[in-house]
Design a protein that fits this description.
Layout: H1 2-22, H2 26-32, E1 33-35, E2 39-40, E3 48-50, E4 56-63, E5 66-76, E6 84-87, E7 99-100, E8 105-108, E9 114-117, E10 123-126, E11 134-137, E12 143-146, E13 152-155, E14 163-164, E15 169-170, E16 175-181, E17 184-195, E18 198-203, E19 216-219, E20 223-228, E21 234-238, E22 243-247, E23 257-263, E24 269-275, E25 287-292, E26 313-317, E27 322-326, E28 331-333, E29 343-345, H3 356-362, E30 363-369, E31 371-372, E32 377-381, H4 386-394, E33 401-405, E34 410-414, E35 421-423, E36 430-436, H5 449-452, H6 455-489, E37 507-508, H7 511-517, E38 524-528, E39 531-537, E40 545-551, H8 556-570, E41 580-586, E42 589-595, H9 602-606, H10 614-634, E43 638-640, E44 649-651, E45 657-659, E46 666-668, H11 699-714, H12 731-740, H13 752-755, H14 758-771, H15 782-790
Parallel strand pairs: 26-35, 37-41
Antiparallel strand pairs: 1-11, 2-8, 3-4, 4-5, 5-6, 5-7, 8-9, 9-10, 11-12, 12-13, 14-23, 15-20, 16-17, 17-18, 18-19, 20-21, 21-22, 23-24, 24-25, 26-27, 28-29, 30-36, 31-35, 32-34, 33-34, 33-36, 38-39, 39-40, 40-42, 41-42, 43-46, 44-45
Helix pairs in contact: 10-11, 10-15, 11-14, 12-14
Length: 809
Amino acid sequence: MFELRQTKEQMALLLLPFFLLLSSSPSVQAQQNITLGSSLTPQSSTSSWLSPSGDFAFGFRPVDGNTSSYLLAVWFNKISNMTVVWYAKNTEEDASVVQVSSSSRLQLTSSGALSLQDPTGTEVWNNQVVGAAHAAMLDSGNFVLAASDGSTKWETFKNPVDTILPSQVLNPGMKLRSRIISTDYSNGRFLLDLQTDGAFFYPVAVPSGYQYDSYWSVPGNDTTNLVFNVSGMIYITSGNGTQNKITSGVITSIEDYYQRATLDPDGVFRQYVYPKKVSNLYPQAWSVTDFKPPNICSAETKVGSGICGFNSYCTLEVTNNQTTCLCPTQYSFIDEGRKYKGCKQDFQPQSCDLDEADAMMQFQLVPMSHVDWPQSDYEQYSPITKDQCQHLCLIDCFCAVAVFNDGDNTCWKKKMPLSNGIIGDGVQRTVFIKVPKNKGQQSELIDSSTWKKDKKYWILGSSLFLGSSFLVNIILISVLLFGTYCCINRKKVPTLQSPSSLVLPLKSFTYAELEKATSRFQEVLGTGASGIVYKGQLQDDLGTCIAVKKIDKLEQESEKEFAVEVQAVGRTHHKNLVRLLGFCNEGKERLLVYEFMSNGSLNTFLFGDVRLQWNLRVQLALGVARGLVYLHEECSTQIIHCDIKPQNILLDGNFTAKISDFGLAKLLRTNQTQTNTGIRGTRGYVAPEWFKNTGITAKVDVYSFGVILLELISCRPNVDLGVAEEDQKILAYWANDCYRCGRVDILVEGDDEAICNLKVVERFVAVALWCLQEDPTMRPTMLKVTQMLDGGVVIPPPADPSSFVSSLR
């Protein structure tokens, strides 16, 4: 009898969306059905489709109130914050959220599919199902595409993101993925995976998507479904009809309360209720009724940072069921808005060149009670006294924290980074944090003898010395020539006193506008040779986020450089180039206004602890190559960037690579092939011809791209003096050796995705070695490079470069 009742309940839950669709009255049915050919656009009267009751809406929702960027989403339509419960994501595993601009369009096509198009008409998302007769937004919160016979072709309930709703049923293989933070819908660090033997909660490496060991689970036996029933209980059902609860239902009627359950950004699966009317039981806001696991802070993972990020520790606020992340003394958050990134030391770490006396003079151990990082141990002592434990950590340059247990007189030494930090009364250990006694007077000793230990350093030093001498001579000659040129052509230098003289489709901003947009130039995004870049937000209807480059010192050459950059960059338009939105030319103020890149520079992601996915690295390499092809061959005026490096490759919200910073670009007329100029660029990426009395061509960018391509392949910088193996310190040497020996797999050791694509790895290494040829005439053009990367042409074995010393400059 019990099993029969359970079976009936499950059947009712599964059939509820279709019952709502099929059994409606004619008037409601007409309101509910969305006919083929219907469409939605943001910022219009048809920006969403409502459910019959108006409780839910499907359509375009601004991202965090920013009306320049929209989600395709389902949300609660009658509450003040209009909580989003579903949003469109790309179909690939661990893909990013789909965000579009205000001129985008969603259409229910004549073939019975959903198609989302950007302002150019390019399809950016579809539901990969055709054959629907109509669509409907149901009162259950489920948006469905239905066939003419009433069967469901596609539904949001079967494509969940981070939230489930009453009557929703998940099957094995379906997953919930948290957001990265509550206001950023990108894939977060936690995953709920329904499997045949239960529901498992995993921490996930961002942005690679790698799953660590589970931190909590609900066991099952031949699991069939995860059910959120209408009375508020969430459970998994097994093949024998048994139920294993995840949360307990506390609401008896969905008529009085909205409900949802969300895998939140901190890894906690919380069940929420929201009273539809004023209630004595709950305020008219989302309230937590149950959550799992009971204490997320104690959820330890063997690999990864833990809940709060490296060098941080976690505490659970019982009153509001929220986690709080904290930093130890003299540590601070890397990003206050994204505390999961962890904490950094606010001081110079202890040098291993200090002797014991100096170490004890400069550093001290600060005790903290009820705090522990259960991993990161590298040495253990027992039995030992507390004083001995502290002393051994103090004189050890690797030791960042000592942990002492009074119960058994055991001491552990821990090194950076610290993971899985927790604070609570249940922690019965004392930790000692190593910090400097006086930060202002902390010694920073450099052992110059290490420079003399390696002949490659002598080569580097000699090259830099010769290069510097040559540079000084070039600068002196350039000053004399430029002075003469200016005297003769002073009247020919274009003035920028009137913005109208720049006949460009760019917005001319006033200085006051940009000062207000940047909150008086508060938040610095980066600095460069020609200015400082600030983050800002325009006071327009869209609230557009911008990056403002302010050029502070304006000599005559700087004015010329400003004019060149505005005119050159203003004419460029390519998806792999950062777009210039406008400029300010007011008095002595010179500012450039660029589109804001939310994911910062490639440098931030490329050399971190977690590798970017191989497929993503491939797309980044292709994106940079295509951007350079545009600059070199498709612009009306050829642009040589001259400073291609990871810091100048920015990533948008979809991790699309965009080349930035044209402040150092040297422009050529279409009938010119080379130019002579002062040395530009960044050490490690500069082509050897900069140090020779030869002309500079677009091949300098090809060389720099070759360096970046090797860095993308191996996820390590082009020079890494900290590597133990001598032949691996210089990436170009090492890559060349690996290629010649037929062992490119060593370059991607530990990267399973890359190992599975060794033919592509070998092709990319060969392309990089062609780009790094010392003779620029032997390097391919960037167009040829893209063809080689795509596999469209046969790549002959690259010549063995005669020297890679220039790659160090």
